[in-house]
Amino acid sequence: MVTCEACGKDVPSGNSFCTSCGAVLTPPISHSEPVNSEQITGKPEGVISWSRKIPLITNPWLVLQCIFIPLGCGAVLGGFLSFILGGEWDLLILMLIIGAGLGVLMLIIMLVLQVITGGGLETEFFISDEGVAHKAGRTPRTLDRVSTGGSAVLGSMSGTGAGLLAMSQENNVLAWEEVRYVSVYRSVRSIVFRSKDLISPVVLYCTDENFPQILAMVRKFAPAIATANL
Known about the structure:
By secondary structure, the chain is α+β, with helices and mostly antiparallel strands. The chain has six helices and nine strands; from the N terminus they run ββαβααββααββββα. The protein has two domains: 2-28 and 38-55 and 120-221, PH-domain like (Roll); 60-116. The strands form three sheets. Strands 3-4-5-6 form a four-stranded antiparallel sheet. A three-stranded antiparallel sheet has the order 7-8-9, with no helix packed on it.
């Protein structure tokens, strides 16, 4: 076991990045062995890491989430309440309207954030022969905490819950053996990795330069069942 310098968690020896926070692990340097450039920079051999701003309002992956998640939650909650109250389907319509309103609000917030941040939220990405990971930058982490704290102060349980969910997904790691679904969005150079339970996906936003290389690594290391449509 080795200790991650970023979060202090114990990680199995041989891992290229932390399974808890996604940080690249610095391999131990033996004084009896020659020191190479990979050891000096702290970047393990075989790991590709880069930073990129995640586009928001121009990102189909995020836009679809903003539309369907509030609508889905409204449909489930409204249907449940209508069933409990004996067929009062007006509640379902009301919940759907509220969900649509929340979706529009989220899209407006995304537009404002994209303008304020000059193109999106800075994020770090990693890929190796072990798996994939992303790590939120300082700006999105700060925004998550501000929005969560503000929602808690205002007494908004839904806003607080959404903020806590966003905070829990700031650093996501997925090993190749856990990957079951891979979706490629070439227009924004992004690749989405999901496990069989569809919870906490890892999204890699590539650059124009490294996208072909990253896609080749995905085809090489991801399970065949996940790359059949690539």
